[in-house]
Structures are given as C-alpha cells and as structure tokens.
Amino acid sequence: MTQPQLAANWRDYYELCKPNVVLLMLLTSVIGMFMSVPGMVPWDALIFGNLGIALCAAAAAAINHLVDSRIDLVMARTHNRPIAQGRVSNRNAGIFAAIIGIAGMAILLVLVNPLTAWLTLASLLGYAVVYTLYLKRATPQNIVIGGIAGAAPPLLGWTAVTNEIHGHALLLVLIIFIWTPPHFWALAIHRRDDYAKVDIPMLPVTHGIAYTKLHTLLYTILLFVVTLLPFATGMSGSLYLLGAVCLGAGFLYWSIVLLRGNNPKAPMATFKYSIIYLMALFMIMLLDHYLLPAMTIFEVDAR
Ligand code: HEM
Ligand SMILES: CC(C)=CCC/C(C)=C/CC/C(C)=C/COP(=O)(O)OP(=O)(O)O
C-alpha cells in the first residue's frame, strides 16, 4: 500500500516554480533578446539575463502558491499542490521564494543592468502581489490587468541586451497581453465550477459561459490584428506574416468552435492550442529575423 507522502522533495519545490509556464516565458524573453539585435546576442546577457528573469518569475510563482494554498486545496485542478497538501510548509515556501527572488534580482542588478532588474521586480510584484493578492479576488478583469506582468518577458529580454525600452519590444508585450485572456478564459470555462466553489470572480462565474466564449473570440480577433503589426511596422518580414496568419486562423477556428458549443472538448483544445500558438508564433518570428536576411545574402552571393 502506498503511504501519503508528507515530506517534501525537490520535485515539490520545482512544482512551486510553475516550470512549464516559466519555460514558455523564457522562450519569449530569449526571442526578445534575439529580436533586439541584428547579429548574435552577447553570451553574458543571454545566460545571466534569462537566469535572473527565470528565478524572479519562479519566485513570483512560489508566492502565488503560498497565497493561494487554501483555495488550491479546494479546487480539483490544484488540489495536489505542495503547499496545499502540506508537503511544503508556508515558512519553507516563503524562504524558498525569498532566496530565489533575491538571487534573481542580484544577478540582474550586478551582471545585467538595473533597468532590467527593476522591470523584472515590477513584474514579480505585479503577479505575486497585485494579481494574486488583490485582482484575482476583486474583479473578473483580473487576468486582463494581471496579464501585463506575464507579458513582460520579451521586454525584459530586450532591455537585458540593449538597456533600452524600444517600441518593438512593447509590441511583443502587447501580443502576449492580448493573448492572455483567450489563453486563460478557455481553461476557466472548463474549470468554471472550481472557481465558483472558492468564490473567485473569474469571468465564466460572474458573467456566464456564453459571455466568456464571446469575449474569448473577440480577443482572438484582436490578437489576429495585433500580430500583423510586427509586419506592418517593418519589424518582421513575410515569413512571419505567413506564420501569424496561419496560426491566427487556427486560433480563430478554435474560438469559433468554442462559441458554437457543439464540441465538449473545445475549451481544453482551445487552451492547449493557445500554448502551441504562442510558442510557434515567437519561433517563426525568430526564424524570420535570421533566416530571411541569411537567404537574401545567399541569393546575392549566388548571382
Ligand atoms: C495573468 C496571466 C495568466 C494567467 C491568469 C494564466 C493562467 C494559467 C492557468 C490557470 C494555467 C493552468 C495551470 C495548471 O494547470 O496548473 C496556465 C497554464 C499555462 N500557462 Fe498561463 N496564464 C497566464 C499567463 C501566461 C503566460 C504569460 C505564459 C507564457 C508566456 C503562460 C504559459 C502557460 C503554460 C505553458 C501553461 C501550461 C502549464 C502546464 O502544462 O504545466 N501563461 N495558465
Ligand atoms: C518576473 C515575471 C516575469 C513574473 C511573471 C510571473 C508568472 C509566473 C506569471 C504566471 C502567470 C500565471 C500562470 C497565472 C496563473 O495564476 P493563477 O493563480 O490564476 O493560476 P493557478 O490557479 O494555476 O495558480
């Protein structure tokens, strides 16, 4: 017979960091770095910048686990989390978050630049304090406003390399900011009853599922338009445009299936698609940034 596991192991601390979320954020910060320069990103910015951003994002995630442990225990999706189950005590979680958060800030301050450090701290506090402690329990627009913190990594990557806030970096932030509501609401539709049980005013609880589906589609349309801006502003080329249109069409397809309501799998399929979408969009942007100029040089050489 298996005994309930009460002692924490490294996997519990790893889980506190929301590793998959942080990994996708890192992908966007790495790509923000590469988009900020025509050639190679300096190795020190690449390594220490991403390490610092990852540690601060993980600290914010651990604080979110700590603050939410009581509601996490009640919700089916989060029931088994380390603090909710008592495998990690509040004290140890707090110490862990403080150590990795301070380490991340020190790395950014000393080895990267103060601009990146302060912007990262603002994102950490934006998610761990403003979103988790206040917005999440206060308004159904919680994830729209709180989304600014999660959208910051490409800007953090950009400033880690250039020490400057550039309009193109803000465009990348805007894309993730507009992507966040359809990403989250698709999941929240699936988990509506969980949120209702713990009295968290997520949109499907306060305004109903039909309203949330409509708003998911409206944000997806807006996202489609916003993802055309990198091409319109000359930041990205035609390969990116093709990718953004195809990926955007896929997202629109799932939002429409979701709205029509004939497919019970649509909410989770839309949520999963949102993650693949963001990953693929940023990777195509990177390919476009390097591959197209390289191919042009190759064509000129061949003539
Ligand atoms: C305020 C903004 C956001 C909210 C409210 C939100 C909400 C969520 C929720 C509730 C989950 C499910 C987690 C679970 O099942 O344990 C999730 C998963 C995920 N989110 Fe978000 N998210 C936000 C922003 C972001 C951002 C900015 C990214 C990355 C750039 C991201 C990437 C992911 C990934 C990769 C997963 C899958 C995690 C896994 O399978 O373990 N999210 N999100
Ligand atoms: C420094 C920096 C870039 C900070 C960003 C921090 C960060 C990890 C943001 C993640 C966004 C997210 C997963 C929100 C879900 O929280 P939730 O509480 O609504 O979801 P849950 O119920 O799964 O915990």
UniProtKB/TrEMBL annotation:
Question: What membrane topology does the annotation report for this chain?
Answer: Multi-pass membrane protein
E.C. number(s) listed in UniProt: 2.5.1.141
Pathway info: Porphyrin-containing compound metabolism; heme O biosynthesis; heme O from protoheme: step 1/1
- Tell me its family: Belongs to the UbiA prenyltransferase family. Protoheme IX farnesyltransferase subfamily.
Q: Which residues form a coiled coil?
A: none
Could you tell me the gene encoding this protein?
A: cyoE
Q: Give the InterPro entries listed for this entry.
A: Protohaem_IX_farnesylTrfase, UbiA_prenyltransferase, UbiA_prenylTrfase_CS, UbiA_sf
Q: Where are the transmembrane segments?
A: 21-41, 47-67, 88-111, 117-135, 142-161, 167-189, 210-232, 238-259, 271-292
* PROSITE patterns membership: UBIA
Per the UniProt entry, what species is this protein from, by scientific name?
Answer: Zhongshania antarctica
What keyword terms does UniProt attach to this protein?
Cell membrane, Heme biosynthesis, Membrane, Transferase, Transmembrane, Transmembrane helix
Can you name this protein?
Protoheme IX farnesyltransferase
Comment field (misc): Carbon 2 of the heme B porphyrin ring is defined according to the Fischer nomenclature.
GO molecular function terms noted in the UniProt entry: protoheme IX farnesyltransferase activity
| GO cellular component term, pick one | plasma membrane
Function, please?
Answer: Converts heme B (protoheme IX) to heme O by substitution of the vinyl group on carbon 2 of heme B porphyrin ring with a hydroxyethyl farnesyl side group.
